[in-house]
Design brief:
Blueprint lengths: L1 E6 L13 E6 L2 E5 L6 H4 L10 E3 L5 H4 L2 H10 L8 E4 L5 H6 L12 E4 L4 E3 L2 E7 L7 E7 L2 E5 L9 H4 L5 E5 L16 H11 L3 E5 L7 H9 L5 E4 L5 E3 L1
Parallel strand pairs: 3-4, 4-5, 5-6, 10-11, 11-12, 12-13
Antiparallel strand pairs: 1-2, 1-14, 2-3, 7-8, 8-9, 9-10
Helix pairs in contact: 6-7
Length: 245
């Protein structure tokens, strides 16, 4: 399994990073975890967007899905011909918001996207497990397993009971740190760098990648905070970074 960080900025694109988008490849299957605003551009460094096999949208905040709009245009109107209908896993509660960006209903997007809801099962070569997270809108973390190796992506979440068990033994934990450590943080929103480190420690993760740091926060400080409580290998997600599991 190979993970490529396409975009990793939280809330809005930063000066050197698009919003959340993570390309996971296994046995020739290309799965994209989220496609936030600005991410379709750098995605083209790694593959033709018409060659994606599936997209998983963790939730319907714009920094995780807005580039589905230009993706649909590329796949539908490319001069070399339309691409096959693309499986898109997305929360059913927000699907009409996606369609609204096209001025259509979700059922009218069947020529470009085949929607399904997040659920345990399989997707291409991956065994998939999902869990609802602590976030203001319907959001799911995802665990991908293939050939005995596992990747867990927290998506956006505040700390909650059950997340460490969900991530238990993951070879790589891709954990958000949308909040900077400090007092009076709003519950049920985001992890901090310290929270991400504690999660990796409690889950016994093999490696931690800290991501989704907002441009107005100090990314290096988030990594330092995570490493202060997690003794394993911890790195900061950066565009173009590749992790082989």
């Amino acid at each position: 399994m190979r993970l490529t960080v396409v975009g990793c900025s939280g809330s809005h694109p930063g000066p050197d990073a698009a919003c959340s988008a993570y390309l996971v490849e296994q046995d020739g299957f290309r799965l994209l975890l989220d496609l936030g605003n600005g991410a379709l551009g750098p995605l083209q460094r790694y593959l033709d967007p018409r060659d994606l096999d599936a997209v998983y949208i963790s939730h319907l905040h714009g920094d995780h899905w807005l580039d589905l709009v230009p993706l649909a245009h590329v796949r539908r109107h490319h001069p070399d011909g339309a691409a096959p209908v693309l499986p898109v896993v997305a929360p059913s509660s927000g699907r009409e918001r996606i369609a609204g960006a096209f001025g259509r209903s979700a059922s009218d997007l069947g020529d470009v996207f085949a929607f399904s809801g997040p659920a345990d099962g399989s997707l291409g070569p991956f065994d998939v497990r999902v869990i609802r997270t602590a976030h203001p809108v319907e959001t799911h973390a995802i665990r991908l397993t293939a050939q005995g190796r596992s990747l867990v992506y927290t998506a956006d979440t505040g700390p909650f009971a059950g997340l460490a068990a969900f991530a238990q033994g993951a070879d790589l934990l891709l954990a958000e740190a949308g909040f900077a450590d400090g007092p009076d943080l709003q519950p049920g929103m985001h992890l901090t760098g310290t929270d991400a480190g504690q999660l990796a420690r409690d889950a016994g993760a093999g490696e931690l990648v800290v991501t989704h740091v907002a441009p107005w926060h100090d990314r290096a400080a988030a990594l330092v905070a995570a490493s202060s409580v997690y003794a394993g290998t911890a790195t900061l997600a950066m565009p173009g970074a590749v992790y082989n599991l």
